[in-house]
Each structure stands twice: as structure tokens, then as C-alpha cells.
Amino acid sequence: MSKFVFSSPRKYVQGAGVMAQLGDYVAELGNKAFVVADEIVWKLTGKTVQDALQQRNVEFHYQQFNGEASGNEIARLTALAKEADAQLVIGVGGGKTLDTVKAVADELKRPVVIVPTIASTDAPCSALSVIYSDSGVFESYRFYNKNPDLVLVDTQVCAQAPVRLFASGIADGLATFVEAQAVKRSHSKSMVDGDPTIAGMAIAEACEKTLLTWGYSAYQAVEKKVVTPAVEAVVEANTLLSGLGFENAGLAGAHAIHNGFTAIDGDIHHLTHGEKVAYGTLTQMVLEQRPDEEIARYVRFYRAIKMPTTLKEMHLENESWENLLKVGELANSEGDTLKNLNPNLSAQDIASAILAVDAFSQTVK
User: Fold this and answer.
1) Which of 172, 195, 336, 358 is the catalytic position?
2) Catalytic option among 106, 255, 336, 358
3) CATH entry, 12-159, from 3.20.20.70, 3.40.50.300, 3.40.50.1970, 3.40.640.10
4) Residue from 99, 122, 149, 273 carrying the catalytic annotation
5) Where is each Alcohol dehydrogenase iron-type/glycerol dehydrogenase GldA domain found (predicted)?
6) Of 60-74, 117-131, 139-153, 203-217, which range is least confident?
7) For the domain 161-361, what is the CATH code?
């Protein structure tokens, strides 16, 4: 029997300068907060966060994030949050900080507030975290029984981040509808363990349309560190539309192949999540036998926003066939989502498609 599930955050707030209103929204959830951010993010946003919370008499304890969404880091922060007797947990920063904070809030059974400072992934809105080892190797997805209580996105803050991170969010978002279509076609389950909903598919499609329509002009604006209507649209697509789309319509090959890349060492790990997902999306398209012109359109768009489309740009031009097979094997593991694309793919199929993307991309003018 089919089961349709749709999941979303309790509240989503976006706009230039909204971080100054954080206290207004947090006060609805509690008055004793445990705040997590890395050192760089806290230097940039700490005063604004502190002032916003103090204006609404919300007590807070700040703790620095150590950089990896791992079991050990989650355990460390959970113990400190318990010690602080936190009523809620606030994460400020990028995807790994936010994934870690969601896990800490789940351990404590407390509300969680997500404050992205970059529009670089679709992690903020989801009821899951991607868990890595302390050394950064993908281990598993961790699922929660609810989405964040509040997601607050200050577009002025996001526009100050390096444009490469903004572009990475666009690349991550462009995987959403590509993967959703595969899940729907294979009658697989979404990330909330239901059949893809009409709403989830429509949101995923709107995400792709928004990014291909305004992604390039928004990229140009963020390069100048300004917020325009196109930037607002693309931040919403990167964060809300992509988040709701991937969760309620599902993941398939692009993210599984991204996770597969963690099986090998080297300079590839200096790339962002979105940069690796971009190559994973092209690889999925090759595995699906999508029309050449459709793949070429994505290649051209990725190039326009400086996302990698060749093995050289992925720092994999000298990688051995054996290592590409390792990528395929990890991507195809039981705990990942490649089977939503095709349950009959082999590690050799994936490695061949990775090479085929490189060959095809080099011919696109």
C-alpha cells in the first residue's frame, strides 16, 4: 500500500537583516539556549546573535564547533548542552555545523533553531543529518522525528560569504529534481519514508526552474556582495525548495556518488559539498542515458558558475581505475540512495560513468 508523507520546518524566515530579529523567534521556544558555531562564523555573527538574544532576555551558552559532523563531536556537544541545562539548541554556520546541532537537539529532545550563514547546501530545513567519521569519511544518514523548529536565513549575511559557496548551493540544489525524478520513476521511497508527494515533486521542479532562470544573475550579484531579488529567489531555492524537495521527493545517484568520493584520498576533499554533487549529478544523468543536449545544458550552466565538470577540476585526472571502483562500491552501499536510481548498477557502471562525464564535458562548447 502506498504511503505519502510530507515533512517541513515549523517556521522558515528569510530576508536581509533578519538575524537581528533572532531573539523574537527564539523566545517562542525557550529562554535558555545552547549556541554552536565555528570560530570564524562566531567572529562574523556573534555580536548580532548575542544582541538579538539579549534583547528578548534569552540566556545563552556559546560553544565552538570543531569542524566535523561526527559521532564524537555530537557526544561532546550533547554533554556540554546538558551541563548548561539548555532549553533549546541554536546552530549558526554551514552544513556540518547545522547537521551536528540537529543531532545534539535530538539527543536532548529539545527544540532546534537553524541559522545558516551560507546558502551552500540544503541541510538547514531537513529532518536528517549526514554523519561522517572524525576524518571526514561518510558513514550514514541520521533521521529525526521532526524538522527544525525554526530556520532563519539572513540573506545579507549569506551574500557576504565567498561566491564559490553560493555557487555550491546552486549545484546542490540542481541535484534535487534530477534525483526526485529517479525516485518517482523507480517507485522508491523519499527521505521521510513515503512515496514522493505531489507537493514534494512540484517543489523540486520549482527549485530547478528557479536556479536555471536566476542562478547566473544571482551568482553575479553575490560576487559583488549585494542582495537582489534574484539572490533572494536563489537563496530560497538553495535552502527551502531544495531542502523540502530532496526530503519529500527523495535522493538517488548524485548524492550517493558524492558520498562515494569520500572513499578516496587527495585534493578532491578540498572541494565543497556542492562541487562534488555537481559532478555526481552529471554522472547520474549519464547513468540514466539522458539526452546529450540536456546533459550539455547542465555542463554549460555549471561552467558559468565555476562548478567542476571534468576530472581535472575534481583533482581526479590521475586517479586509478581501482580507486574509481572504490567510489562506485561506496556509492552503491546498502546505507545509501543509489538503488533509488537503479538497483542493478555495479561499481564498474559507476566508475565508467564518472569517466564518461569527463570525456563528454570536454566536447561541450
Assistant:
1) 172
2) 255
3) 3.40.50.1970
4) 273
5) 9-155
6) 117-131
7) 1.20.1090.10
